[in-house]
Here is the input.
Amino acid sequence: MPMLTKRIIPCLDIKEGRTVKGVSFGNLRDAGDPVELAARYSDEGADELTLLDITATLEGRTTFLRVVEEVAAATSIPFTVGGGIGSEAEVEKLLSKGADKVSVNTAALRDPALITRLSDAFGNQCVVVAIDAKLINGRWQVVSHAGTRLTDIDATKWATEVCDRGAGEILLTSFTADGSRKGFSLDITSAVATAVPVPVIASGGAGIPAHFLDVFTQGRADAALAAGIFHYGVIGIPEVKTFLKNQNIPVRL
Here is the structure.
């Protein structure tokens, strides 16, 4: 059976209408205009985009909605939006602005039934559950509220539960590796990808093209997400995809 095409997904963390990037969710610095970046990534061959609203203020959400609308107009690839989403009404608004999928995280931990409600209302292909995992004493535990709160929830068990509740995809971010550029956390990625029946997007730690190869082979991920290395021109999407193609990983060129 042929292997499905592996996806490369740039992530744009958006604060007050600007793209920002940090390390382990902190020390944020400006990375440019999100609409310009999105259009560039679309042209460079990104398979999808992820836009995360990292400010919870009402003003931030209004700004973010405008960005979503502008990104939809400027790109030709699917994109997922997330950040502070907690209701069907919010999802409906984001989809009406042009988003293809939504990502829920803290709200799903607070109210797991939200996953099922969203899946029933919009289809499970539209519902991505984001899981932020941190390695604590040899155990991968879920963190919430942008990494500021540690839960006692096992990341792999939570992944299986969200799939049972209707998640169509999992965005798994290693808080431990985020922004390190030392490679994805292959152990937790592989554990989750093996445990669930839906696609897993690996996030956190990309630094060189070989890291993408590792996460697709050893990590068993279906897609890989990166931010800073693309935003700051460390490596480009065409470079990553050409490298993967040469390693016999199926990618869309």
Notes: The chain has ten helices and twelve strands. The longest strand covers residues 127-136. Residues 58-74 form the longest helix (17 residues).
